[in-house]
C-alpha cells in the first residue's frame, strides 16, 4: 500500500490453459517488473496447473479501440450480402473448411 | 485463508496430495514415523509463521504468494504427520518439547526481509532434501517427488526477493543482510542427521552453501560470518528443545483445539 503507483505498474495477464488454443485475458495485477508479474500471475490466475502458458503485458503498452468509434469500427455492413460469403456451396470432400 | 490449520483446511486441493486416512495414533509405518515427524513439523511450523503474514504483506500480490507457500507447506505437513499418526492430535495436542522441527522455521517473521532470509535458507535446504528423498526408496519418496516441485517454487520466490532486496535500495540491502546474519546460526542444524531419514543430510551442506553463496553474491550481499554449527548455534530443535518464541506460537495455534477437546471441525 505504501508503494508509489509508479513502482508497481499495472500488467494485463493472458493465460492459455493446458488444452486451450489461444491466450485469453484473465485479468490484471500490479508488479514491479515482468518477472514478478509472471510469478504473481501464476499465483493469482493459474493455481499452478501444469502445461499452461502465461503472457504478461504492461497495461501501458496496450492500445485499445475507442468506444466512441465503435459504430464506424465494428458495424458490419449487413445490407451488403456479398461481404458475407455465406452463399457458397461447399464442395463434397472438403474436410477442413 | 485461515492462519490456523484445521482438519478442513483447503490445503490439499492444490498441494502435495490428499492425506491418507490416519489409523488412530498408531503410526502407519513405524520406520517412517520419526523422519516424517521431523519434516512434517518443519512444514507445519513454517506454514503457521507464513500464515501470520495474512493481511500484513507489503502488497496484495505478495500476500497471495506467501499464503500460497503456507498452503503448500501445510499440505506437506498433513501428509507427513498422517504418516506418523493422527495429524490433528500431533499438531494440536503435543507439548513444545515433543515437536521435532528445526529451530530455523520457528523463528518469528520479523520484517519482510527477515522472512525472506528465512525462506531462502529453508527452501534451498528443502529443495535439496526432497530432491534426494524423491530418488530414494523410502516411504516418503512419493511425497517428496510431489513436494519438490512446490519447494522449487518457494526457493525461486525467495531468491527473487533476495535479489531485489539485496540489490534494491540502501535500506532494503541493509535489512535483508541483517535478516541473513541473524538467522545464520540456525542453518547448521539443518544438516544434522535425522535418524531413519533416507537422506545423507551432512552431505547436502556443501551444495546448500554453494547455492546460497551464489544467490547472495548476485544480490550484492555477503555470506554471514560466524559459525553455523557448534556452541552458540541452534542444534536441538530435532531433539525437542526450542527457542522462546515457539511456545507462544504454539499457544496461539493450539488454543481452540485445547479449549474444546474432542470437537469436530
Please provide a written account of the structure:
The complex is a heterodimer of chains A (97) and B (265). Helix content of chain A is 19%, strand content 21%. Chain A contains two helices and three strands; from the N terminus they run E-E-H-E-H. Chain A has a three-stranded antiparallel β-sheet with strand order 2-1-3, with helices on one face. The longest helix of chain A has 13 residues, at 34-46. With 265 residues, chain B is mainly α. Helices cover 58% and strands 0% of the residues of chain B. Chain A binds chain B through residues 1-3, 8, 29-32, 35-36, 39-40, 43-44, 47-48, and chain B through 14, 58-61, 64-65, 68, 153, 156-157, 160, 164.
Features:
heterodimer, A: 97 residues, alpha+beta, three-stranded antiparallel β-sheet, B: 265 residues, mainly alpha, Ferritin, 9 helices, globular, disordered N terminus
What's a concise summary of this model?
The complex is a heterodimer of chains A (97) and B (265). By secondary structure, chain A is an alpha+beta fold.
Shape of chain B: globular
Mean pLDDT of chain B: 88
N to C succession of SSEs of chain B: HHHHHHHHH
Helical residues, percent of chain A: 10-25%
Give the class of chain B from helix and strand content and strand pairing. Answer: mainly alpha
- Beta fraction of the residues of chain A? 15-25%
The structural domain count of chain B equals 1
* % residues in beta strands of chain B: under 5%
Determine the most extensive contact between two protein chains: A-B, 16 and 13 residues
Amino acid at each position: 500500500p505504501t508503494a508509489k503507483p509508479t513502482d508497481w505498474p499495472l500488467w494485463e495477464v493472458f493465460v492459455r490453459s493446458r488444452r486451450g488454443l489461444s491466450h485469453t485475458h484473465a485479468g490484471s495485477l500490479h508488479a514491479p517488473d515482468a518477472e514478478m508479474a509472471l510469478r504473481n500471475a501464476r499465483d493469482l490466475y493459474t493455481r499452478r496447473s501444469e502445461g499452461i502458458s502465461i503472457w504478461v503485458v504492461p497495461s501501458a503498452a496496450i492500445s485499445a479501440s475507442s468506444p466512441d468509434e465503435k459504430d464506424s469500427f465494428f458495424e458490419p455492413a449487413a445490407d451488403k450480402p456479398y461481404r458475407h460469403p455465406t452463399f457458397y456451396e461447399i464442395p463434397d470432400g472438403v474436410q477442413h473448411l | 485463508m485461515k492462519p490456523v490449520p484445521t482438519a478442513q483446511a483447503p490445503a490439499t486441493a492444490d498441494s502435495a496430495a490428499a492425506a491418507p486416512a490416519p489409523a488412530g495414533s498408531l503410526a502407519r509405518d513405524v520406520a517412517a514415523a520419526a523422519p516424517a515427524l521431523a519434516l512434517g513439523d518443519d512444514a507445519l511450523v513454517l506454514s503457521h509463521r507464513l500464515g501470520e503474514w495474512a493481511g500484513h504483506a507489503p502488497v496484495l500480490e505478495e500476500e497471495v504468494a506467501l499464503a500460497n507457500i503456507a498452503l503448500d507447506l501445510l499440505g506437506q505437513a498433513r501428509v507427513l504427520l498422517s504418516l506418523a499418526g493422527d495429524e490433528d492430535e500431533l499438531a494440536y495436542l503435543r507439548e513444545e518439547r515433543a515437536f521435532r522441527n528445526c529451530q530455523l522455521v520457528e523463528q518469528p517473521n520479523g520484517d519482510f526481509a527477515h522472512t525472506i532470509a528465512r525462506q531462502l535458507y529453508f527452501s534451498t535446504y528443502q529443495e535439496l532434501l526432497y530432491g534426494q528423498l524423491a530418488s530414494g526408496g523410502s516411504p516418503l519418496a512419493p511425497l517428496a517427488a510431489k513436494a519438490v516441485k512446490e519447494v522449487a517454487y518457494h526457493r525461486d520466490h525467495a531468491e527473487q526477493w533476495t535479489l531485489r532486496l539485496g540489490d534494491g535500495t540502501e535500506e532494503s540491502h541493509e535489512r535483508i543482510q541483517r535478516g541473513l546474519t541473524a538467522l545464520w546460526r540456525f542453518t547448521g542444524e539443518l544438516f544434522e542427521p535425522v535418524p531413519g531419514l533416507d537422506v545423507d543430510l551432512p552431505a547436502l551442506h556443501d551444495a546448500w552453501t554453494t547455492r546460497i553463496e551464489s544467490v547472495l553474491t548476485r544480490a550484492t550481499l555477503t555470506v554471514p560470518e560466524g559459525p553455523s554449527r557448534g556452541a552458540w548455534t541452534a542444534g536441538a530443535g530435532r531433539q525437542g528443545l526450542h527457542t522462546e518464541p515457539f511456545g507462544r506460537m504454539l499457544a496461539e495455534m493450539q488454543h481452540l483445539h485445547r479449549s474444546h477437546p474432542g470437537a469436530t471441525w
